[in-house]
Fold each of these.
Amino acid sequence: TEPRSHTDIILAGALGDLSKKYLWQGLFQLYSKFSDSKNTIAFYGVSRDVYEVGAEKLNKILQERVTCKMKDDTKCERRRHEFIQKVRYFQLKADEHFRKFGTFLNSKSDKLNQSVVQGRIFYLALPPSTYTSMAEKLHNCCLLRSGKHWTRIALEKPFGSDTNSAKEMAEGIGTFFKEEEIYRVDHYLGKSVVKQILPFRLKNKDALEPILNSDHVDRVELVMKENFGVKGRFEYYNQYGVIRDVMQNHLTELLALVAMNLPSTLSTREIESQRMGILNHVQPLTSRHTLIGQYSKYISEAQEEGVNASSSAMTPTFGAAVMYVDNARWRNVPFLVISGKQLDEKSSYIRIVFKDKEFCVSSCTHLNGSHFHGPKQIIFHIGHGSLPSPGILVSKNLFKPKLPPGLSTIVVTSHDSSVYGLSMDDFNVAVPIENNDAYVTVIEDLYLGHQQSFVSTGRLMTLWEIWTPVLSGKHSPKMYMENADFSLNFQLNNGGIEFTDKYIAFVESPSEARDQMRSLPPRFLGHKLVVGSSDELYQQVAEEIYIKALSSVTDKKSFHIAFSGGTTPIPLYRALVTFFPNFPWTRTHIWQVDERCVLPTNSKSNFKVMETELLQKINIPYHNVHSMPVFLAGEICSDRGVKLYRDDLTFHLINNSFDLVVLGVGSDGHTASLFPRSSLLDDSNSLVTLTSDEASPRRLTLSYKMINKSKFVIAIVTGKSKHDIVEKLSEETKSKYDYPILGVNPTLGNMTFFIDNDAWFGE
Ligand SMILES: O=C1O[C@H](COP(=O)(O)O)[C@@H](O)[C@H](O)[C@H]1O
């Protein structure tokens, strides 16, 4: 007997990553659910590989990647076997291949009775640069042309990289396929909870509609955090970055779903019109509304994959934006859109936080209907994070949700697991009955022609118009530490957002010096080297110190740093004060590398400089400042002072190890107060010591032993007067007796030389 319908599904890019990871499994599940004697489906995998190679690779992928959820599910195993047998491979490279493939498909189709509704789906899991030519070839060779039929072409993002490129691409595809045939995939629209947003809103409209507006909503957070980096995708990611990768598409689509006016039905036309209605009122973004960051190892990881550093320098891996919908319903409500790689956790959610208008007077800690004084919120938990499953969470003090058919309630028994600022049992929780992988749903929607789950051309263009203004790439991303960085915290200010710690959120495009710096030999005297203009260099040193401080305070609640004397640290003190107002000074202990044997009021006193430039400007506890006791009870530089400092070091430091030592280098190659040919250069016992008469005045200094125990050493060399020493150090084999800086080699830690352009280039 003839089937009622027959569909050909052609997967181009059949051997690629996406197909391997998700699409073949999705197609298998489609086959299991929908293919029967009445509705048949044929599957074709196509790629540029010759038949023998491609067919074998495809078979391997199918055998390895297509699985049944449950072990020993014999029915599923049988279907799986059938499916794998059914998939056919074709090479599509030359025009002739396309012609032959078209002839083959149509000969099959001609054999079917005219009453059979035939469909043909082309799924392009290919680089977008190939879309237009592929669309043209498929259009010319492989369309169904007679009988009752339909055609769909599915495309994977990226759909352009800004308004113009997206328009060009849309026009290219639009030449060969009609709007209703184009299915642009945004897999977030296939996530099980995302699918339930509109049904949930409709079902609960009596409770929800009156409160989903600016009178009641304090803010909406749309978040997609990941705790891994970009490994294996740097080429792609450098061209796109986090805004284009997920914020312009997934997260703004989510915004539309929560903010749009409720459609009266769930038809494609109604939904699309309400979505466009809201997106057309989203204010285009400006740099005041966005922040970007880059995780600290991004450039070096990209280099390891052979991607050059200068193309990675401006790529944001973190983005935050505040968006506003300029209509009566949502005016002034901030929609905070946040995404990033290498953050503390993998978690995606939409969180609607309601204004707290009620003031609790008594029994405030009890859950007591609407009197409970806690944040009122609705969370669409899309996936991952601390919850075991995707779900919709409604604060119990808000309302008791009714459930549409796709959701079921779960009873939460755990009292202590804390989520979104509340205990789990402060929420009514509903979970999707079917929790399929997003691609399973995408493929099902594609087959069923549910266009509302895909991105129309009109919507695509509106999304790009919102985001394109902030894609100029003029701003440097702020560097952040992997996994545990609170330096990305930001706050609303006058309708815009700013990092709470304001350090160079936006510096103008990187100077030539920075580009030049990136192409320099990466090492100097066996240590890491950074060269740049003096300003940038000091900012970088300050940033390095800040990052080390955060990490140390996170790990062990304290940070011990020693600063050398002289003029070199002055711009560093200024950079720390200016750019890092949130430096964890209360947990930082400041030590001196060396001090001149003078009164603390003397202008040559290193401490005096530090006090004026740094200590007076920060909020650091008195006991955390460890000045060298060069003046004790009327005596200048006594052995008692040496002993006191040594005891202080030993008391505070684990293994006498600083977290960081900042050194300068003199034009004679000295560092700390370790001078050429000094007897101190052979002293392997002391931690602190006094110089004899090689320098006047005498000085108290940390020894090599103490410096080399540090976890990290930064040596700063700046100014033209240091150019000769930089040259000498790099050209000849020297000994530490002539050039004491050569004796600095932290035994367990690392060292970086920061050398400014004047000292490096000498002009
Ligand atoms: O589209 C993308 O999404 C993934 C995250 O998807 P999820 O389903 O695991 O939440 C992201 O890692 C990737 O960079 C981006 O291209």
Amino acid sequence: MPVVWMLRRVASRMLQRPACGCQAPVLPGRFLGTSPQQIPADAHFHSTSFSEADQPRVLITGGLGQLGVGLASFLRKRFGKDNVILSDIRKPPEHVFLSGPFIYSDILDYKNLREIVVNNRVTWLFHYSALLSAVGEANVSLARAVNITGLHNVLDVAEEHGLRLFVPSTIGAFGPTSPRNPTPDLCIQRPRTIYGVSKVHAELMGEYYYYRYGLDFRCLRYPGIISADSQPGGGTTDYAVQIFHDAVKNGRFECNLKPSTRLPMMYIDDCLRATLEVMEAPAESLSMRTYNVNAMSFTPAELAQEVLKHVPEFQITYNVDPVRQAIADSWPMNFDDSNARKDWGWKHDFDLPELVTTMLNFHGSESRVAQAN
Ligand SMILES: NC(=O)c1ccc[n+]([C@@H]2O[C@H](COP(=O)([O-])OP(=O)(O)OC[C@H]3O[C@@H](n4cnc5c(N)ncnc54)[C@H](O)[C@@H]3O)[C@@H](O)[C@H]2O)c1
Ligand SMILES: C[C@@H](O)[C@H](N)C(=O)O
């Protein structure tokens, strides 16, 4: 590590400067500002088993969204339950609360974030808090705060405490002037949503902190992620999750994108594995800090055709949402992830047929359980 990085890190650790620039002393004591009920898992942290002791200590922000609970469960299998803390500003459902450490964390509250990192000796941070593309357009000022100011807090905490930081970016970081079929890692990025603008900002700030301060920043541009047991949080690709619920429940689905709208997509298991793989990749294998990752690319009509093979009575109709359609029309149709494949060996497992079979099996068995009860 260059001397300038080391000196700066030592100085910043001594100063413990909050991102807002105001002076805040480093407070002694455990879990200041958080109630004991929020951290029942504290006992677990202090009774960490021997085998878990040398693992990374992970914090996931925005962990109660579509991807965070799955990520926590995936990482806990690898690093041990008590080494992975899920956090959010919402109240967790009981099964999540009981499944491992959960803590309240608002990424707009720098001091709260720093306390959590310090008190739990966090070493890896997965920053999942965000407002997605469609909800971001409905509340630009909140999206700007969460996606940009929140990121600044996370970057500063990560840099001051020497964390390895993962921030997901998205196909939404590209825009209508980017090459769309396929979209390479390095090309024009002029997105037209606050979500996309904030993600380009995150990519650039992370890379800047890497070159300027030596922050171990790693970033993947995810395609639309499709999950069976969690709901999407207000994006443009949400239709590709909802279609499975509706196909199994009602045999029909009303799609809010045009039938020919082609977008890159990925099953959640591939997404979580890609995330862990890039975090574990040896530093020397990474030629970039931000990589495209992809699995498949399809249109609503193609997805419906595949569903029809399993649900013969299935019907799809179209009622286009102009906001989502305009966003989708500006995004990549196919994603070139050859750098991820070359540098750290990325390889997806799920193509469209496996995705559809897996999703329908999950929802089919869920609905059979519900009918039996
Ligand atoms: N799901 C996808 O298809 C997809 C695709 C590309 C990138 N991503 C990225 O992956 C990450 C996770 O996505 P997701 O689908 O789980 O998102 P989501 O919208 O489902 O969840 C985001 C979470 O952030 C939380 N949050 C909001 N404001 C917060 C604050 N001030 N402090 C702390 N938490 C706050 C919300 O409560 C929510 O639980 C996001 O950064 C997203 O941009 C997701
Ligand atoms: C693509 C991704 O970033 C998210 N699912 C959205 O549609 O906003």
